[in-house]
Design a protein that fits this description.
This protein is of the alpha+beta class and 411 residues long. It contains 17 helices and ten strands. The chain is elongated and about 110 Å long. Strands 2-3-8-5-7-6 form a six-stranded mixed β-barrel, surrounded by four helices. It has helices spanning 2-12, 20-60, 78-85, 119-125, 128-131, 148-154, 194-199, 205-211, 231-242, 251-254, 256-294, 296-304, 309-340, 342-353, 360-363, 374-400, 404-407; strands at 64-67, 90-104, 109-117, 132-133, 143-147, 161-172, 175-189, 200-204, 220-225, 247-250. Mean pLDDT is 81; it is low at 16-20. The protein has two domains: 2-55 and 258-407, no CATH class; 69-245, no CATH class. The chain starts with a helix and ends with a helix.
């Protein structure tokens, strides 16, 4: 097809305007590359962030949570636990108590969120045991395990003794005094979530019960499932079996606003970054219009020799598609490579230039989570291709409607 030959010749070997057309062709390709690569990188990071956030939420807490009817305490929790264990999708059930205390050392104090648990039941209900380091055995009633960031900030090490002071009070002959408990730091845990690692401490259920004067009650039951996607089904079944005596929530319901915000932000970022591809498309329009105006004489000669309007229009459409395909290919390859290697790139910048683009204390994560989804990449490529194709139509119509007489009038 001579249309392909002429399209590439006009685009790549321009002798008119001292090569300006070829230069603007290169700029158009670069714009497409940047637009496609930016979309892939940003959507991959946001998808990875959503997955990481989901993993952190359900690994430390629960797939399904059973609380009291007023969501304050669960006084009679053993019966709901036995009912939940009978469900075929349930892997484990464990009670927990959660509340704020003041942790004091010899010279300083700092707020701490205590998570009281039953060590024998917790392993089947969460993945906390995978995050605990240097504990040296099962947690006892005289020990506490701290988040590594919290321990580092407070200067506490394994073997140190700390005092936990609860907001609950007990009556003594001398008056009301806050409940206190002296514990030994048995180890640290690292979940990878900065919020948990910098605020939480783990104790046994008995210690938490004493600190908050729960009188045998717990705050909730955490339920672990064989498949997190069955959370909605299991929650409905448990609600029916418990007959309104307890409130049952899935991890999605407990964090509905958080994940809805992430989804909304992901869609908005897609539309915003798509504007970069729109700019690339407008650049293609300007480039092809320059080619059409610079090749007016050639168009007239082609039409005089018998070339149809369709063939002339096809020449400039092919130019736009060539720019789009080159930009798409390089953008997809470059964006995918960067998305897969974003953390090594950040580590290189931090190590050699001292540039920390992702501080853990701001984003609550050890590194940038990135997950390349083939469907997202295909969607980005298709959107960019359609924009570039639409951008090629106007210059192609301009060239195809040019009359031979008008094109050669002043030649």
């Amino acid at each position: 097809m001579y249309e392909v030959f002429l399209a590439l010749r006009y685009l790549l070997r321009s002798k008119s305007h001292r090569g300006f057309v070829s230069f603007f062709s290169l700029i158009s390709v670069v714009c497409v590359i940047i637009g496609v690569a930016a979309l892939i990188i940003v959507l991959s990071v946001m998808t990875g962030f959503e997955k990481e956030m989901k993993t952190k939420v359900i690994s430390v807490f629960a797939h399904v949570t059973i609380t009291g009817p007023v969501r304050v305490i669960l006084p009679y929790w053993k019966e709901p636990m036995e009912i939940a264990k009978k469900n075929p999708h349930v892997k484990g059930v464990a009670p927990y108590i959660r509340g704020p205390v003041l942790l004091s050392t010899r010279d300083k104090g700092h707020p701490l969120v205590v998570l009281g648990m039953d060590p024998d039941l917790e392993d089947s209900a969460s993945e906390l045991h995978n995050y605990i380091k240097d504990a040296g055995g099962t947690l006892t009633d005289s020990q506490v395990i701290l988040g590594d960031t919290y321990a580092r900030n407070l200067g506490v090490e394994k073997g140190d003794r700390v005092v936990l002071t609860s907001p609950a009070f007990i009556q003594t002959p001398g008056g009301r005094v806050p409940v206190q408990k002296t514990l030994e730091v048995a180890g640290i845990f690292h979940s990878g979530n900065f919020e948990y690692d910098s605020q939480f401490g783990l104790t046994t259920l008995a210690v938490a019960n004493h600190l908050f004067q729960m009188k045998g009650a717990v705050h909730a039951l955490k339920v672990s499932l064989d498949d997190v996607d069955n959370a909605g089904i299991v929650a409905k079944e448990l609600s029916e079996e418990l007959r309104g005596r307890c409130s049952v929530q899935t991890w999605m319901e407990q964090n509905a606003h958080l994940f809805a915000a992430v989804q909304l932000e992901k869609r908005v970022m897609f539309l915003i970054l798509l504007l970069i591809s729109l700019v690339a498309a407008l650049n293609i329009v300007s480039t092809l219009v320059m080619v059409v105006l610079g090749k007016t004489k050639d168009i007239g000669i082609l039409r005089a020799l018998g070339a149809t309007s369709r063939s002339v229009g096809l020449i400039f459409t092919i130019q736009g598609l060539f720019i789009a395909m080159v930009g798409l290919f390089l953008g997809v390859v470059g964006g995918t490579l960067i998305a897969y290697n974003v953390n090594p790139i950040l580590h290189f910048l931090r190590l050699h230039f001292g540039i920390d683009l992702f501080p853990a204390n701001v984003y609550y994560l050890d590194g940038i989570p990135s997950q390349v989804v083939p469907v997202d990449v295909a969607t980005i490529a298709c959107c960019a291709f359609v924009l570039c194709l639409l951008a090629s139509i106007f210059p192609a119509l301009l060239a195809s409607r040019m009359k031979p007489v008008q094109a050669l009038r002043y030649e």
